[in-house]
Amino acid sequence: MKSDTFELDRFDRSILAVLAEDGRISITDLARRIGLSKSPTQARLRRMEETGVIIGYRALLDPIRLGLDHVAFVEVRLNDTREAALRAFNAAVAKVPEIEQAHMIASHFDYLLKVRTPDMSAYRKFLGETISSLPHVSNTSTYVAMEAVKETMLADGA
Predict the structure, then answer these.
(1) How confident is residue 137, by pLDDT bands cut at 50, 70 and 90?
(2) What angle do CA 120, 125, 129 make, to 5 degrees?
(3) Could you tell me where the beta strands, DSSP code E, fall in 56-129?
(4) How far apart are CA 141 and CA 74, in angstroms?
(5) Secondary structure (H, E, C), 84-135
(6) Do 89 and 78 form a contact (C-beta atoms < 8 A)?
(7) What percentage of the chain carries pLDDT values higher than 70?
């Protein structure tokens, strides 16, 4: 994660807000929506891409329609929290597609994972075969989500 912040003016924030709604909008339409001409809009967009404010463009997929109805939050405690162990755990987690998010936590446990699987049976297998075999995992606790009340991306507040 970059620690450098980037100053955004109202036009930059407008660009981000429009792109959060429609990442496939044309430069011409984007410029019209934010109230600038095409060239400065394109220059601002390029600058935000080059400086890492905009890190990419993706399709947002509906996990429910893809059959991934089961969401679990998993507390993970490691048996070693020295830097090499943390790096090994982080690298292993990054390779697991079922893990949507992984956060190092300052608490009585070390990581909080958001895991998405088709159902409880698949999660049970995933927990036993994948999470348990990640480097330095000592123990886990699982919390199953019953309903997503709010799930948004960062650009909502940009």
Answers:
(1) very high
(2) 150
(3) 70-78, 99-104, 111-117
(4) 6
(5) HHHHHHHHHHHCCCCEEEEEECCCCCCEEEEEEECCHHHHHHHHHHCHHHCC
(6) yes
(7) 94
Tokens linked to 145: 């989500």
Digit-coded pLDDT (tens) for 25-65: 999 999 999 999 999 999 999 999 999 999 999 888 888 89
Distance between CA atoms of residues 153 and 32, nearest Å: 24
Half-sphere exposure of 3 (CA within 13 A, CB side): 0
For residue 156, the tally of other CB atoms under 10 A from its CB is: 11
> Phi and psi (nearest 5°) for 87?
-60, -40
DSSP letter string, 23-41: TT--HHHHHHHHTS-HHHH
Amino acid sitting at position 103: H
Residue 9: phi and psi, rounded to 5, are -95, -175
Q: What CA–CA distance (Å, rounded) separates 49 from 31?
A: 16
Q: Is the per-residue pLDDT at 5 higher than 80?
A: no
Q: Nearest to residue 92, comparing CAs of 57, 121, 134, 132?
A: 134
Output the pTM of the full model.
0.79
Q: How many residues does the chain have?
A: 158
Asked if pLDDT for residue 155 goes beyond 60, the answer is no
